[in-house]
Amino acid sequence: MKKFGILIVICLLCIAGVSLSANADIETQKISLNGSTSMEKMVNALKEGLEDQYPELQMEPQFTGSSAGIEAVLNGTTDIGNSSRYLKDEEKEKGLSENIVAIDAIVIVTDTQNKVNDLTKQQLIDIYQGKIRNWKEVGGEDLPIVVIGRESGSGTRSAFEEILGIEEQCQYANEVNETGPIIAKVQSIPGAIGYVSLDVIDETVKPLSIDGIQASEETIQNGQYSLQRPFVMATKGSIEQQNENIQNLFQYIASEDGRKIIRAMGLVPVL
What totals of helices (H) and strands (E) does the chain contain, helices first? Predict the structure, then answer.
């Protein structure tokens, strides 16, 4: 009986060994990404979906800002540089391919107690240039406007200022390094105004319409909402020149599953 028990244990160990060997045969292939903090929510959702469909693929994203991501893909330290702005001509001249995977809206937010619901584009420009300094000048209460924005080098800031034509002209009371702190400051400072991606909007802040148009998938697609920017996954060379793993990633993003994920993030898919 004791010998029979030992044989059973040995057989079980052998089976476990075969199973472990089979799992070991699935070699994980890693895809590195670096860049825009505004793209973090979308990238992490795509990462989960991709790894369900391709268990052998593993996305390794970092979120250090658009400019850092572009520099990383240029110097070969990452496979994909995530940018929440269009690539500059000089970046394209260095061999980068501008792969736009989604369109995002930049939404203007205030604290929830603010009485203003809508701004014209010109009013928004005047607020960020410091020409309008009190909410009563745009139909609100007698309350100083506290202008919040992203740090220099942020893709969100670059896109926001470029869309409005106010590069290097903004007068910020506070500059922060990530999207989350924009929400935190706006909700906690009476009179604050800031800009964030559509997909991070929650009930703690109040989104404003621009020229009477609220940001939505429909108004982004038809171009009515003016404050919109691309989510770019930049590669050194075209997608077709990338290795099979990276090509599989882009194929997944372009698939119906990938497009569903992008839409679920409040974005408009492009690929």
Answer: 10, 12
Residue 175, domain extent: 105-228
Cβ-Cβ contacts under 8 Å for 15 (sequence gap 6 or more): none
Q: Distance between CA atoms of 31 and 163, rounded to whole angstroms?
A: 32
C-beta of residue 255 within 8 angstroms of C-beta of residue 240: no
The radius of gyration computed from the CA coordinates of the chain, to the nearest angstrom, equals 24
Give the model's pLDDT for residue 149: 95
pLDDT at position 4: 47
For 88, half-sphere exposure in the C-beta direction (CA atoms, 13 angstrom radius) is 12
Q: Which two tokens stand for residue 47?
A: 């990462």
Give 3-state DSSP helix, strand, coil % of the chain, rounded to 5.
40, 25, 35
Percent of the chain's residues with pLDDT above 70: 90
Are 91 and 124 part of one and the same domain?
no
**What pLDDT digit, counting tens, does each position of 19-28 carry?**
333 344 456 7
Contact 174, 149 (CB under 8 A): yes
Pair 161, 216 in one domain:
yes
Q: Does one domain contain both 192 and 80?
A: no
Please indicate, yes or no, whether residues 113 and 223 belong to a single structural domain of this protein. Answer: yes
Q: What is the enclosing helix (H) or strand (E) of 125?
A: helix 121-128
Q: What is the CATH number of the domain that holds 129?
A: 3.40.190.10
Q: How many CB atoms lie within 10 A of CB 92?
A: 13
